[in-house]
């Protein structure tokens, strides 16, 4: 299924959705948008079930100036129940920030790590990411995890901005009870178009994963995109796209997909 639309300022948004049989139950979502100056923002979401890795997700975004933000999330596998989270970001000056977090269950207690929710053995992980400093150059990532024996593992990653504000990223996190993880990535394109990526999760009773991607021009309102995912077993992907037509009427597209038993896509247009 392919969906193509143009907004009021002739910005094109293209949506490709493909699915496969129940053997691998693959669901692929491609979102490509171009602004008036042909600035392209592409988002690829691939979700499929394998023999041992049932819930792999890949999210990547690449702009025209080769500014790349890639997020890979691998869910539990049936053999070793491993979770891998990769966050890779490249700026214009080829400055790379990569965050790898692996989680697996072993006999010991201090090797279990997970982000954004409680694990099967009730291990909690807190992800603290500080804001920009006063000189607007410093980014600090703090990751602390506590196992059952109160063993703490802390990881600090610092990155400095290379050039102008065109490729700046802001990452922040607030968590009092160690259950919420919020990741904000902001980028300014050449036409002063802002791209914001929000990832927040809660895990008190039920696991909530929310992914918001908003792209808009500074003075207009017709380029708002929202993508959210909420699931207890991480099997549902919900896609909401809102835009304003020429007659100032709002068009909303909702797409929900589940692939626990098989790939099922249900589009709703309002």
Automatic annotation (TrEMBL):
InterPro entries the record matches: VWF_A
Residue stretches making up the VWFA domain: 38-84, 94-140, 150-196, 206-252
Xref: Pfam families: VWA_3
The protein's name: Unnamed protein product
Species of origin: Candida boidinii (Yeast)
